[in-house]
Every structure is written in C-alpha cells, then in structure tokens.
C-alpha cells in the first residue's frame, strides 16, 4: 500500500467519522503517524462539526449530500463549509448538493421511509437512490481523487462504470422486455420489475426459484451482483439491460456458473 496516497471514504455515519479523522485541531488526529491524503464524505452528519469553534481540515475534502436529506440535513454541511472557508481560506473543501436527492442517493433502491430513526425529530427518514445524482457523484469523486492524488486513477470512471464486466447474454425470446405479466414471480416482484425497466443500463434482474427477485442497477458487475444477492436460494437472470434472457427450460437459464467475464 502506498501510504502517501491514503484516501478515506465514508457514507452517512462513516462520512461523519471521515470528517472526524480530518480535523487537524484534534489531538488524537495530530498523534497519528499516518493521515489521509484525501477524504470523501457522502451525506455525513455535519452538525457536530459546524458547532465546533476550531474545526479545520487536515487534507482536501469532497463532500456530497442530497438537498432533500432529512436524516443528515444538507444545511449543516453548508454551514460547516462556510465556517471552514472563513477561518481556513486555503482549505480545499469541495461540496456538491444534489437536487431531488435523499439520504443514500447513491444507492440502488427507490426512496422509501425508514422507521425508528433515533436522530430525527419525527423518528423517520427518507432513504433511497437517485440515478442521476449517483452517476454525477461517481464522476465527481473520480475526478477529485485524480486531481488531489496527482495521478490518473488506474481504473477510470469510463472503464469502471460503462457497460458490463461480463459478456451480455443473448435475448431468449421468452417475452418482450416490457411485458411485466410474463415475469415468473410474485406481484411484488413485478412492481419492482417496472422500476427496473425505468432505469438506465448497466442493470440486471434475477428471479429466484421461490418467486422472489433481486436487481442491480448502475454497476459493471450488475449480473453478478443480482445473482449473488440471492444467497443460498437458487436463482437465474431474467433480464439484462433491455433484453429478457430467461428460458422456460431450467437447464438453459443463466446462473452464476454461466457468467463469462469479458477480456480486457
């Protein structure tokens, strides 16, 4: 490991922790023999730090958060940046607030209400992904790291996120990709399949032998990820991108063993 290019990346509470290891006024941070070269914090809790009178950055920071985040509000992070830039004018503190985005905007599930959240007044919070914000965040992070580390990333954003890591299966002819009624799964699975259809590739939708479903969207390993999520339950790919790859004959269905990794 090249300790001169150490990067800390954290989400939510992990993002809050990342802000903590970045505070150069903290004696515990000062005592560390190794410190991060760059820090990326996604939707962190910023309130504890913007209330501190002496918080300062020890390294460049990229902070990304959703405008509609009702768990870790963006306004606290905006206030933190304003505070830091007033007292530490040479600080590298890049911040992006994504519109129409909630806590966990880089996730793959649609926005939904999370119950029993202790840190909000209502006890609830909205959590879920925004595909546009997720794509923008990926690019911003890759660009920021490349600039701050002084070297191009070995694996560029285009190489990592464009297309699939595995060979794309041929359409099986089982059904048209938009025919939700043909999906051999539960009504709940069909509702999730409609969500899948509205997303951009790379994406994959898997169906289990019990009528369940798993999907992965926006990742180069979408096929592998959707099948891995099935765990010990037997499952197969139903659709990949804009094509149905499911077969009525179980022997022809695509499981993990039939994925073929692309050669680079």
TrEMBL record:
SUPFAM superfamilies: alpha/beta-Hydrolases. Coiled coil: none annotated. Residues 2-145 form the Dienelactone hydrolase domain. GO terms for molecular function: hydrolase activity. Signal peptide: none annotated. This is Dienelactone hydrolase domain-containing protein. It comes from Noviherbaspirillum denitrificans.
């Amino acid at each position: 490991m090249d300790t001169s290019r150490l990067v800390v990346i954290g989400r939510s509470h992990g993002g809050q922790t990342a802000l903590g290891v970045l505070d150069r006024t903290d004696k515990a941070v000062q005592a560390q023999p190794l410190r991060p070269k760059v820090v990326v914090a996604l939707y962190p809790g910023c309130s504890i730090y913007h209330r501190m009178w002496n918080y300062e950055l020890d390294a460049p920071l990229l902070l990304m958060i959703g405008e509609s985040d009702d768990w870790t509000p963006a306004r606290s992070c905006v206030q933190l940046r304003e505070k830091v830039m007033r007292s530490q004018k040479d600080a590298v503190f890049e911040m992006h607030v994504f519109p129409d985005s909630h806590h966990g905007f880089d996730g793959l599930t649609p926005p939904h209400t999370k119950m029993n959240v202790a840190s909000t007044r209502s006890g609830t919070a909205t959590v879920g992904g925004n595909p546009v914000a997720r794509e923008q965040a990926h690019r911003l992070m890759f660009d920021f790291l490349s600039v701050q580390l002084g070297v191009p990333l070995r694996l560029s954003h285009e190489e990592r996120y464009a297309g699939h890591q595995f060979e794309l299966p041929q359409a099986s002819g089982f059904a048209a990709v938009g025919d939700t009624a043909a999906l051999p799964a539960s009504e709940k699975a069909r509702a999730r399949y409609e969500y899948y259809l509205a997303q951009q590739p790379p994406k994959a939708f898997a169906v289990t032998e019990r009528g369940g479903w798993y999907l992965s969207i926006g990742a180069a390993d979408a096929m592998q990820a959707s099948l891995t999520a099935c765990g010990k339950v037997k499952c197969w790919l139903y659709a990949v991108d804009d094509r149905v790859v499911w077969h009525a004959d179980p022997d022809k269905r695509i499981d993990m063993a039939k994925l073929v990794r692309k050669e680079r």
